[in-house]
Every structure is written in structure tokens, then in C-alpha cells.
Design goal:
Elements lengths: L11 H11 L8 H14 L3 E5 L2 H11 L7 E4 L6 H7 L4 E4 L11 H10 L2 H6 E7 L8 H10 L3 E5 L7 E2 L2 E2 L6 E5 L12 E5 L2 H10 L24 H11 L2 H19 L5 E2 L7 E3 L5 E5 L5 H10 L15 H7 L7 H7 L2 E4 L7 H17 L2
Parallel strand pairs: 2-3, 2-4, 4-5, 5-8
Antiparallel strand pairs: 1-9, 6-7, 6-11, 8-9, 10-12, 12-13
Helix pairs in contact: 1-9, 2-9, 3-4, 3-8, 10-14, 11-14
Length: 378
């Protein structure tokens, strides 16, 4: 049996929506982008949404739109997809990493407070924002981070790329702080092929983002009227049509993913060497992005992954610490031991196959092979 790591849930209605756009004169800069933005702002509970070609672009637009630039510092996590930190570097600002909580795998608010308290006045003056990630769909502790941001007069940015539909104490992720992002790569809750979106209640930030995503064009929309430096970050009409169609069944999609996660939880509950994902008590709804387990420290994780892949179970380590990526080491001098919880967790995690329509017999096969690999490589 072969079980892929992920597989998009595309139905005939989605295909018809995309084909429908191809029968119009709008393939880019048309009504479907506007429709998708309205659906996303309504779903996330924000006033504005700006659709772009990736979650990375959405984060970059927030950093740029908020005026964060050279010499500024942004506090963030080393345990994330690398885009959450790269977007800071794009504007020649600097990430200030703080270690994560062992349970949620999110940025540790206590450690953030201690780090900020330890900075000199000159160092603290350079810190402009907190960029907090809802790792694997798990909401961060947003009450704490909102309090910290207010106390230190910092901008609060939410990377909810992996958390579409997750809720913190009844409020949807992406709606905290000045702005948030979602992403729609094929392994996400919904997919637009490639794509992302910025959500915010800040009218000025939304206005700037719309301009910057389209080569810096002014509000007049004139093709060669450029008011500022911009990029080609636009989302196309085909992608937007797919997103609109997928959002029409978002509740069904989230329920499917919950059922898959619950099957994994049940079948792995008696495997002592495996730690299943922890969900914090303040999470009122968990939107599952991936299903990431942690192995006991004495198990050779890399050999387990190699064995599973050989047996047809596609899996990967999730995540490699950002600070230990080669160019971060070279640029900032990071080394092993700088963020011990991130490094420990990273060395023990495995993302198992996870997608909407994963069947129970496939999960049984994954669990069977995982158990065997644990016996082999303990």
C-alpha cells in the first residue's frame, strides 16, 4: 500500500468553477478575486481581505505595509515554516527568536516577556512587532500576546497560514492583532493551488497591500499608474474560483479533518513511544493542518522516517529549526543549543499522512508500519 503525505480534496464542483472562469474574459484582476476576498473576510471576522499568490507574500505585505524596515527587530518563533522569518529579512529587518512551549509548539509568552525585559533601552527601541505563528493549526495564547504587545507598544502579526477555522476562546484565528494571514497550498485546509490572503481591520494597511501586490498601482487602477514600489503578488481568477468553491464546503472539510485526527488519536493512544498532538484548553476549535507526532528520545527518528517511506508511508520531519538553516547560521551565527525546546522537538517529530479523505484502512496501515519501525529502531 502507498499512502501519500497529503492529497487535495477536489470535487467536480471545484472543477466546474475553474472551467467557468476560463469561459469568461477574466483570467486575472476580475470578480472572482473580489468574491473570494469577501468570503474570507466574512469567515475570519475581519473587515478586509487582500488575496495574493502565497501566504509568504501576504506576510511580506504586512511587514512592508506596517513600515517595518532596516534596523528594526521582530520577535518570532524558530519553529515554523521558514517564510514566517524570511518575510522579516525581505525588508532588511531582523528576527529575534524566542523558544517555544513544549506542549503547543507555539511561541512561549513567558519567554517572550523575559526576553523583552532583558533588553536594554536601546535594544528595546528597535523591537517593532511580535509575529506569532499558530503552529500546525494550534492557536497561540492570544490573550497573553495581546497584553504583551500593548505593554511594549508593539505591532501584533498573526501567521495563521496553517490555522484556517481554528478558534481561540470562540474567536477565529487570523482576527487577532493588526493583521493575519492564511495560505492555500494543496496540503492546507482549502486549496487555491498556490495562494494566500491578508486579513485585517486596518483600512490603511488593506489599501497599501492592494497597491503593493499589484506593482504599486494607485487606487485608480490605471495600468501604468504606479504610486509606490510594488510587486506582482496578485492572485489570479482561476485560483480565486477554486477558493470560492472550496469555501462553500469549509465546514464539511474541517469536520473531515477532525475525524481523521480523531482516528489517529484513538489508534495511537496505546503506543507508549508516541506522543500525539496536544491541544491547549483555550482552543475552542482545532482546525487540523497536519498530524504531527513526537517519538520518545531514544528512538532513531530519521531511521523511522526512512523505513516508513520505504514501506509506502510518505512522511517528513516537521519542522527543521529556522535558526539552524544554513544561511541563518551564516547570517546570524546561530548554533545548536540556542533554542533547546525547538531543537529537541524538531529532532523527534514526524508528520504522518494526513488529508480530508484518508481512509481508516490507510491509517491502520500507517500505524502498523509505525509500530514495527519503533521496534526496529528503539
Amino acid at each position: 500500500m502507498k499512502v501519500p503525505l497529503s492529497s487535495p480534496d477536489i470535487i467536480e464542483k471545484d472543477i466546474e468553477a475553474v472551467v467557468g472562469v476560463m469561459k469568461t474574459r477574466f483570467l486575472s484582476i476580475g470578480p472572482k478575486v473580489v468574491e473570494f476576498e469577501k468570503k474570507m473576510s466574512s469567515f475570519s471576522g475581519t473587515k478586509y481581505a487582500v488575496a495574493v499568490n502565497s501566504g509568504t507574500s501576504a506576510l511580506h505585505l504586512i511587514i512592508r505595509g506596517m513600515g517595518i524596515g532596516e534596523g528594526d527587530v521582530v520577535v518570532t518563533t524558530p519553529f515554523s515554516f521558514i517564510a514566517s522569518s524570511n518575510c522579516i529579512l525581505f525588508e532588511r529587518a531582523r528576527p529575534l527568536f524566542v523558544d517555544i512551549e513544549e506542549g503547543t509548539l507555539n511561541l512561549d509568552a513567558d519567554k517572550v516577556e523575559k526576553k523583552l525585559e532583558s533588553l536594554s533601552g536601546e535594544e528595546l527601541a528597535k523591537v517593532k512587532a511580535l509575529l506569532v505563528v499558530d503552529a500546525f493549526g494550534q492557536p497561540a495564547d492570544w490573550v497573553r500576546f495581546t497584553e504583551i504587545a500593548k505593554r511594549y507598544n508593539l505591532l501584533l502579526i498573526e501567521d495563521s497560514a496553517e490555522a484556517l477555522g481554528s478558534e481561540y476562546k470562540g474567536k477565529k484565528c487570523g482576527s487577532f492583532g493588526e493583521a493575519g494571514v492564511f495560505a492555500f497550498y494543496p496540503n492546507k485546509q482549502i486549496s487555491t493551488g498556490e495562494g494566500g490572503i491578508l486579513v485585517t481591520d486596518d483600512a490603511e494597511l488593506a489599501r497599501l497591500a492592494r497597491s503593493i501586490r499589484s506593482q504599486g498601482r494607485g487606487e485608480s487602477g490605471e495600468w501604468l499608474d504606479h504610486e509606490r514600489l510594488g510587486y506582482n503578488f496578485r492572485m489570479d481568477e482561476l485560483s480565486s474560483a477554486l477558493g470560492c468553491s472550496q469555501m462553500e464546503r469549509i465546514e464539511e472539510i474541517l469536520d473531515k479533518r477532525t475525524k481523521v485526527a480523531e482516528m489517529y488519536n484513538e489508534k495511537l493512544s496505546e503506543v507508549e513511544e508516541v506522543q500525539v498532538p496536544y491541544i491547549a484548553p483555550y482552543v475552542s476549535r482545532m482546525s487540523w493542518f497536519v498530524y504531527v507526532i513526537r517519538l520518545d528520545k531514544y528512538i532513531n527518528r530519521d531511521r523511522v522516517i526512512e523505513y516508513l517511506n520505504q514501506e509506502g508511508v510518505q512522511c517528513k520531519p516537521y519542522f527543521t529549526p529556522i535558526h539552524l538553516q544554513p544561511f541563518y547560521r551564516k547570517m546570524f551565527g546561530f548554533k545548536e543549543g540556542d533554542f533547546p525546546i525547538t531543537e529537541d522537538v524538531s529532532g523527534r517529530t514526524i508528520a504522518l499522512p494526513f488529508f480530508n479523505n484518508l481512509k481508516e484502512e490507510q491509517i491502520d496501515y500507517v500505524v502498523e508500519k509505525l509500530k514495527k519501525s519503533i521496534l526496529l529502531f528503539s
